[in-house]
Design goal:
Length: about 190
């Protein structure tokens, strides 16, 4: 009877060693994974990342660089991600996953610098519909509180902003084209 018990003990001793070693290795791998994930999230929110593809479309980047979101008296720069990527985690992940389609189309050559203007109204409509659906959440992330003092606005702007909810509108209804040229959509 002593023999089976000793085999069991040996087996458990042998099994504990990898488990005890596996826990710190697992923790290190999880930390590396989380740091890498965060690094990718930060890098993919930088203008340099966006420009790496969209510079090929040329007009988008040039329009943005001439806009008040890039050049302002306050020296406040709104990045591409500030306007195009939600700040809440789940919504951000949805946008980032959906954006992989853009990478696919860029690599496949579906949308190129030569045919971009043909696709632009459809793409603009998608962005504007997303902004409208989120009640311009990315706009309101920055333009709220002290950053959106109605008393400092000209009378016409102040009156329009005060009535925006009553009219069932959101920022993008009036400000489509604030960072890129306004596209006419049929």
């Amino acid at each position: 009877m002593g023999e089976p018990r000793s085999r069991t003990k040996k087996f458990w001793r042998w099994l504990k060693k990898p488990l005890l070693l596996g826990i710190p290795i697992g923790i290190v791998l999880v930390v590396i994974g989380l740091v890498s994930f965060q690094g990718v999230m930060v890098a993919s929110n930088m203008n340099a990342f966006c420009f790496s593809c969209h510079l090929k479309m040329d007009t988008i980047v040039q329009e943005y660089k001439a806009s008040p979101h890039y050049v302002s008296d306050d020296k406040v720069l709104a990045t591409c991600a500030d306007c195009h990527v939600p700040h809440e985690f789940i919504d951000k992940m949805k946008v980032k996953i959906a954006a992989t389609a853009d990478i696919y189309h860029m690599m496949k050559g579906t949308i190129t610098k030569e045919n971009f203007e043909e696709h632009r109204p459809r793409l603009a409509r998608i962005v504007w519909e997303d902004m409208k659906a989120s009640d311009s959440g990315t706009c309101r992330h920055c333009h709220s509180g002290e950053n959106f003092d109605l008393s400092k606005q000209p009378q016409r702007a102040r009156l329009n902003h005060e009535m925006i909810e009553q009219r069932g509108e959101t920022c993008i209804d009036c400000h489509a084209g604030i960072a890129h040229k306004r596209i006419t959509i049929e």
